[in-house]
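Regression test attached.
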Amino acid sequence: MAERNIRNLEWAILIPAVLLMIIGLVNLYSVGHVPSELQETFRQGSSAFFYKQLMWCVAGLVLMGVAFMIPFRYFEGTAVVSYCLLLVLLGVVLLFEPLKGSSRWIGFGPFRFQPSELMKIAMIFILARYLSEKRNDPNRPKVIATAITVMALPFLLILKQPDLGTALVFPAILFCLLFWRGLNEGLLILFLSPIVSAFLTIYCESAFTRGSYPYPLLFFFVLILYLAYRRRDRILESAMLVVTNLGIMLVVPALINMLKPYQQKRILAFLRPESDILGMGWQVFQSKVAIGSGGFFGKGFLQGTQKMYAFIPERHSDFAFSVFSEERGFVGSFMVLCLFTIIITRGFYLATKVKNRFASLATIGICSYFAFHVIINIGMTIGLAPVTGLPLPFLSYGGSSMLVTCFFVGVLLNFGSSFYEY
Amino acid sequence: MAGIDFQNEFILDHKRRILLLIVVGVAAIIMLRLFYLQIVRSGYYHKLAISNMIQRERIIAPRGLIRSSDGSKLVVNVPAYQINILPGRIRGREDRLALACEWLDIGKEKLFSSLEEWNRKYPDGREMTVVQTAEKEQISILIENKSLFPFFRLLMKHRRYYPEGDLASHVLGYVGEVTDEDLRKRDDLHAGALVGRTGIESMYEKYLKGEDGVKIVEVSAEGTRIGEFEGLADNLGMEGFVESRPPAPGSDLYLTIDIAFQRAMEKEFDWDKGSVIALDPYTGGVLAAVSRPSYDPNIFMGGITTEEWDSLHRNAERPMFNRTVQATYPPASTFKLMVTYAALHFHALSTTERLRSCNGGYQFGNRYFRCWKPEGHGSLNLFEAIVNSCDVYFYQAGLKLDADEFAYAGRLFGLGRQTGIDLPSEAKGTLPDHSYLDRRFGKKKWTKGHLLNYSIGQGEVLTTPVQLCQMVAMIANGGMRIKPHVVERIVDADGIAVYEGGGSAVDIPQIDDKIIAFIRQAMEGVVTGGTGRASAVPGVRSAGKTGTAQNSGKDHALFVAYAPVQDPQIAIAIVMEGAGHGGAMAAPMARRILSAWFNPVTEPVEDSVPAEDADAEPVTAWNGSFSYLYMEAGGVD
């Protein structure tokens, strides 16, 4: 059982992952690079990121191998224990001295790690294990309640750090798992659509006050009506869907108007960074300038001016993609996006083909982890998503993120090579 | 085998398609967005990226120098370091600013409060000047602690320096930093630029200022200056970008002023209020000009304090007022030269005709017009009347003339309008003609009595010292039109002359040379045996005319002269406010000034004319309120 057949290796996942890892390393080298003629003006030391990340990559590859080699039953078996342990750690981390305004890290010798990153693994495994049990029909209220509780505990603890971006990964993964496990689509839509409605309402409200029409909101409402029409046989559910969404669309603006102006501003700045060009919007604006000025082929390796003169914020972590996109242009961005899409879609395929229910669910969890991180991070750099500080797998600097990402790839490879195990 | 609800391939495939649709859909949206940013709008963002990293640095062009006719420097530029503060960079470093205040010896409370005021006034975070002219010590502290005090900026600036102090200060003028109002009105200026405020600094601003250069430098997000931007060639033609350009220094001005003579004149003119101007009678070039009281333009250099400014501007003596061209005085007896010209031109008199004898006054209607000499001059001809400045003779001459005829003569010699001298705010003076008097008093409301006053240069007629000097210069040069001017030529940075001042003298055909010759003779008579004897310079034949202008206080002493008679080199006009009589006060001054011109190396000649002779015009002769009373009486006929 522990034997792994090299011919069963999921090349479609391994190769894009390794390529992305290399891209990320090279990009970090560029971030830390200071042209020799400028070394007097800029203080040195940023190449430390490159060497540290190199070390994390090596560690990540080892971890990937381990995750690939060990029987996936162990993941299932240790899920509950590790979940509980990490829950404790998430509680402990709150006691630590805040760093950059939030308590995310736990010191461990010379290293610091984020329990919230490890919690992503643990939650995927524990939910996959729970939902893979046949009797746990996701349409039963008790099952839904349990799943939501399992998700909500780390979610709330992470929200407390505060780290909204990371916290939001948890419900996103949960919804995907429930969907895959067979949660009634109508119910899923009933759950999700109000969230989207609220988001779009706030998003469009500013547009509306500026005089343009809230097209995305209208479009979404038409979609809701269509979905309700399609499920007209279940008249109660359809009616609830329409009523809930319409209610949200009407109530949210009123709620926002009740908030104090600075609170309104903060919400708006979160959803539309460019409305606050001197605050959060500045980062997004500079990121867009970097990406846009990259053009089709980019400015060339080490040549990014937005990067070189530090106009891009958080160049090595959150906005690493902006640096890459500036230097490699549309071609490079397209490539990176394709590599991520290959990993994710191949994961979807794997989830349908793998015989083990736990493995299938865990695969979907991992895919949603990748998808959510990629969409939110890249969306942030191009001004489509809020600035949350969610790292881009492989490209953003960070040990915890790199190790977790590598581990997930290893797990996917593991599942891929044990297709027929039950 | 798992349950059908989950493992059924059909259902899973269906779900996979939904997930795929979502993932691929979102990826497509991201892709489209990237396409939009990186391909559609690439040019726009490229431009933004470049403007992010470059800054246009202005290289201030050095202002042109001002030199005297022999090339001595009258105005120069000296480098000075200015300490500016960038309010935007202070945030969170207030403690360091306090430390900087201590090290630089700047008043902390005052700086903080003025900063607060500044930030309220200019919320855009523009820099504020903390120290106008920094000390060497302050400069070295700032340079050594550049990174500790990132909110300071050291600016090297050229400041104007006037090495001769108040010498010819009214001619030179001074410069000041542009005000917000200037900046609003003119778009070719930048904050902190120096502009000429008055004098030739202001009149020749265009030539002096040069053209500022531009340097395109790369700057990081933190504001660190990287160096000159090299990628410019690839990005030229992009809207809003300019090439680096070296500054074009301002052109140097060479004045007609003779520095040695100017120094001598400043020294000799020891009266506290008044003015002297000397012209070259053939070119119109100003050889020297003094206006008193004066000021030292260097006080504007280090950033003048409000108190200093107020004391200069509120001063009742008006030191900033350039009396040479801005003040108007009654020409008094010097105007008799014009009356003479008018009378001879319109054949109202002949040179030989003797008029009614002067007994110290003249009865006209119910008014008695006095002569300055109570004991009278007896019967005089025109020549003797000029030499002795007999008022009674000229009252009679005035009665034979029309107001327009006075004005005709005066206008020929440039009175009543600006001479066009290249100094700011020149006054026009007043030269009344018929229509002017009609306007002033009403038609038929003025009488011949006004003309009596007019004929001795009192009443409505007003002239500036430069007009008087121009008048006498025209008599000296035989009736040629000249344009008084201060700037002889302007030489640009490449040594090419770009401007010539003045222009050559133009003969005016209407001026009758015979009359001019007569006037010149009479003026020489004034110096050799008339009211202007005190002005005689030994060894030099000079010609002049005294004047005593009535004033509400003590009379103004006037004297106009040219010399030498056979080959005029210099024409001067002197006005000494409240000094008394022209012959007694202004004529001796003329002697000292002319001596300085003709004997530049030797010490000025001591009073060689006996004191009693100098008092040719007794102080008691005029009743100061005479003209004033007459005017109140209205139209007496």
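Expected vs. actual: identical. The longest strand of chain A covers residues 106-108.
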